[in-house]
Amino acid sequence: MTNVRRMTVLALLAAISFLLMFALEFPLPGFPPYLKYDPSDVCGLLAAFSFGPAAGFLVELIKSILFFLSGKSADGIVGAAAALVAGGSFVWVAGRVYALGKRSPVLALLAGTITMTVLMVTANYFIFLPLWGLPTSQVKLPLIIAMLGFNLVKGVITSILTLIIHQSLKGKIALTSAEARR
């Protein structure tokens, strides 16, 4: 795959990812309404599986920047940064496991989901919630459980969507081994 074609595919994945986040962001039933789900990380995961973890992270970075610049991020730069940390960690780890392993998307998505969940509970507790004006001393166990559950559910839904799409696209955008070494 030529560099131009690769850049075009990544640009399209980033644009689709932004549009999914912009148009399909919604709260999941049973979780606080400010914890919103969108399927945009699927595009980053497809990029990571096809071109490596850095490409997947780049899709996540572009999506987060565009979302912030669109003005739709109700939480401003903090919300966009939280989305980048969540999506970026999920995509990076899943892409690394996929590239280093036997190209098992299930194992890669499981590792990405667990990493994103642990990182987001930690980052929310120590960084993002205080930036939103909620000191760590006021964060109670029910909120931690909600963050934990939300990120696990988000990871599972995104993983299922990714597996379905990855299976249908298999071989259509992925690099062959010889092309990946160039």
Structural descriptors:
two-stranded antiparallel ribbon, mainly alpha, Arp2/3 complex 21 kDa subunit ARPC3
Record the SSE blueprint:
Elements: H1 3-23, E1 26-27, E2 36-37, H2 41-51, H3 53-70, H4 76-100, H5 105-131, H6 141-169, H7 177-181
Antiparallel strand pairs: 1-2
Helix pairs in contact: 1-2, 1-3, 2-3, 2-4, 2-6, 3-4, 4-5, 5-6
Structure description:
- By secondary structure, this protein is mainly α.
- The chain has one domain (3-25, 34-170): Arp2/3 complex 21 kDa subunit ARPC3.
- 75% of the residues lie in helices and 2% in strands.
- It contains seven helices and two strands, in the order H-E-E-H-H-H-H-H-H.
- A two-stranded antiparallel ribbon has the order 1-2.
- Helix 1 (3-23) packs antiparallel against helix 2 (41-51) and helix 2 packs parallel to helix 4.
- The longest helix is centred in the last third of the chain and has 29 residues, at 141-169.
